[in-house]
Amino acid sequence: MSVWQRRTRLVLLVAAVALAIAVVAAFKRRPPSSVPALVAPADPKAVVESASGFRGRHNREQEEVRIAYDTLTSYPDGSTRMRGVKVTTVRAGGRTFVITGQDADLGKDEGSLAISGDVRVTASDGMEIRTDRATYSEADALVRAPGPVAFSRGRLTGSGLGATYDKNLDVLTISERAVVHLAADQAGSGAAEIASGAVAFDHRSHLIEFTGGMTVSRGGRILQADAGTAHLTVDEQQLQGMDLRGNGRIAADPTGVGGVSAMEAREIELTYGPDGQTLERATLTGDAAIRMSGGRGQADREITASTIDIALAPDGSTPTSLIAREPVQLTMPADPETPARTIRARALDGSGDAPNGLTNARFTGAVQFREYGPSLERTARSAVLDVTLERGFGAIEDARFAQQVRFEDRGLVATAARARYLVGKGALELSGSEPAASAPHVENDRIAVGASRIDVTLVGPVVKAEGAVKSELKPPRTPTRSNDATGGGARVPSMFKQDQLVAAAAGSLVYDGERSTATYSGGAQLWQGETSIKAPTIVLNEASGDLTATGSVVTSIALEQEGKDGKRDRIRSTGSSKTFAYEESSRRATYLADAHMNGPQGDMAAARIELYLKPSGDQLDRAEAYDAVTLRDQNRETRGARMTYFSADERYVVTGAPVTITDECGRVTTGQTVTFNKTADTIVVDGNEQTRTRSSGVANCPPQ
């Protein structure tokens, strides 16, 4: 046996002994071990109970969903109940959505979750919702909370009853009794309190939608509407704007006179400044109305229209521009110093600046202006009206009307292409020309005036017309009897018929209605039928019926005269002088300085000639001539110091020192008194009657 064989046998022997020892040890009796007692389950119906843990998976939106819990209990029907639950959803990009609560029931398909007890829903963008009970459905990604809810995100906090949160759209909806608080920023501005029937927060669009009625309190304003939308900045820290829909109303405390105190419309759009607090612009649509403060003790001014767009000064209250579209109405209530005024038009464009507010306004399209009070009623119509206002949209200082202007004031009617109404002075300036009104025109129950320019002081009125003046003096509405020289009401001299118009023309006219005077200057002329008066200046007093004319006066007067056959004929007499005056009380017409008359009474010249009319005014009673009297009649010339003509018997009485009569043959008769009887064709010189023999021509004169 070799050496290696001996060694191999030795190893095998050792191994066999070791194996035998191991077998014996294995079958040796062991002492009994302790068995732990079984633990009874917390819920007998549960099939599985476990301590804290979590579940993780991905949903159909490829979001990572992790459900962590303190305890978990599973039931035979496949439902699961958890305590101390926390559901976390992580989207691509890192946006997270977390729901926590004390208890949660997980649906059989693990696609729905009902959570109760101090439920909190948070999102990584800062949104937090707090409630007692909520459900979450993975199918529609909605969290629903049926009971009271509180929420917050940045400066926004609020509460309500019933909520829905769409985590995919990032929209939170409060169903009932929503209250929203917007906290002030670091500068202490921008705070707001909002109450609404329901509210929806759209984080992606940075919008807050209010429905079921809303009331907003912020910056000294109360905003109300049936519904509305708040527009937030991208970081949702400031309010950019707000839309009010359905019965929008805003009440404010204006910062001063002319500040906005209220707004109303079916829809109102508000735009705020960078601070989120200062109102910069408001757009009102549908039955729009804006009221502006009239100051202490004065009523607000109101503008109504279909649409109104208003821009505000940095104080957020004072308008600097305003655009309103049809139908527009401005209402300015009466105050202790000014009457009430309204302006209607199709459009209004107002402008101003921050220190003074609106100070200018243009109304266009079918403009209607009205100014009224207990004893005042003024109206105007035009296509365009520009008004200048006192500071803070105060009283109207100046009103300029253009295109087809018609102004009315207690019986006075003015028309023109352009009219300026100086409100404080109660004055009207008319000018311009257009196809519908070739020249300004003013008319009342007594006078009608047309001219290139007309200025009217409405109290009186006082009418001043310049350039190509044409006017008509009207008969009274209730004509006075033509034979009543003292009849009531306005009248013209009796040489004119009282029931007919008297026309006039001149370079200028001043008519004073209060004093009942009309002064025509510059080539003045009055006429009615065959009766006329021409002079550089004519003054008529309608109260008395008196008239004066100065300068180179020329008259033409048609009077009735009864002939020998008893028939009446209208006979025209012409006259001239440097001054002419008619006095209605005595029915006397006086020609003064270089007086001259030519008519049925003959051709007469004197320093002064007076005509006395009969009560009817259309017949001559007598004529008087004074100083350097010359009468040319029937081929004779009579000179004397004074002459009286009686129309009843066509008798002349001439006195002088002496009276001279020169006939056609050059023969001269003198005396102290000469009486001509035209009807009897006799001459009486100092009581000696002479019968005149008619002759024709100088050829029949006896030789000298």
Number of helices: 1
- Which parts are unreliable, with pLDDT below 50 for 5 consecutive residues or more? 1-39, 480-488, 691-699
Cα shape: rod-shaped
* Largest sheet entry: 43 strands, antiparallel
How many whole angstroms does the radius of gyration measure? 55 Å
CATH domain topology of one domain: lipopolysaccharide transport protein A fold
CATH class division of one domain: Mainly Beta
Which properties best describe this structure?
single chain, 704 residues, mainly beta, 3% helix
Write a brief structural summary.
The protein has 704 residues and is mainly beta. It contains one helix and 43 strands.
Report on the architecture of this protein.
The chain is mainly beta. It has a domain at about 535-700: Sandwich (lipopolysaccharide transport protein A fold). Residues about 1-40, about 480-490 and about 690-700 have low confidence and may be disordered.
